[in-house]
Specification:
The chain has 194 residues and is mainly alpha-helical. It contains 11 helices and 2 strands; from the N terminus they run ααααααααβααβα. The longest helix is centred in the middle third of the chain and has 17 residues.
């Protein structure tokens, strides 16, 4: 869809455009997918999203396709294996946080799971923003501040407010496609059908 207007952040790279056109902002309710985005957004800290997007398949392979139960059982041998894996960002704190976050995700199942947890913050409905340009899109909000604080209280790591807001955008809790982007209307319509 090269002639359709898109959000300016995705540029023209086919991988980035496909992510923008098919995934970004679409409401997600699958625990594995929500967990994957939480981990990938945390891995992005200090890096570009494009860097992480290019390593996404490496992450899926290295982290058992984001199987929360399996990751929660990882030990030091797994950390060593992951530190040697060039297909992911080899940062010990980020790797260890993935294991910690898997365990925290399992604990959330006692109260409805990751899906209910995130979507309760927006009463189960995406926030449809009407941003005119990328300059109006914030890095964080009061809501992402509150979610970040609560996640940290529950033992999650690499979940600062900026990471949480990026997660909210990626998983469709907010629609931050700019109004001139062809996806803004499509994502808003899809959210209304839920």
């Amino acid at each position: 869809m090269p002639n359709r207007p898109r959000c300016t952040w995705c540029g023209t790279d086919p991988l980035y455009c496909a992510y923008h056109d098919e995934e970004w902002g679409v409401p997600l309710h699958d625990e594995r997918a929500l967990f994957e985005f939480l981990i990938l957004e945390g891995a992005q800290a200090g890096l570009s999203w494009f860097t992480i997007l290019k390593k996404r398949e490496g992450y899926r392979r290295a982290f058992d396709h984001f199987d929360v139960e399996r990751i929660a059982r990882y030990g030091e041998a797994d950390v060593a294996r992951l530190m040697a894996d060039a297909g992911i960002v080899r940062n010990r704190l980020k790797i260890e946080s993935t294991i910690t976050n898997a365990r925290a995700t399992l604990a959330l199942r006692e109260t409805g799971g990751l899906d209910a947890y995130f979507w309760n913050f927006v009463d189960g409905r995406p926030i449809d923003n009407a941003r005119k340009n990328i300059g109006q899109v914030p890095a964080s909000t009061l809501l992402s501040d509150a979610i970040s604080k609560d996640l940290k209280k529950r033992g999650f790591k690499f979940v600062g407010s900026t990471i949480v807001y990026a997660h909210m955008q990626a998983t469709g809790m907010v629609n931050d496609h700019t109004v001139d982007c062809f996806r803004h209307r499509e994502v808003a319509a899809a959210a209304q059908r839920k």
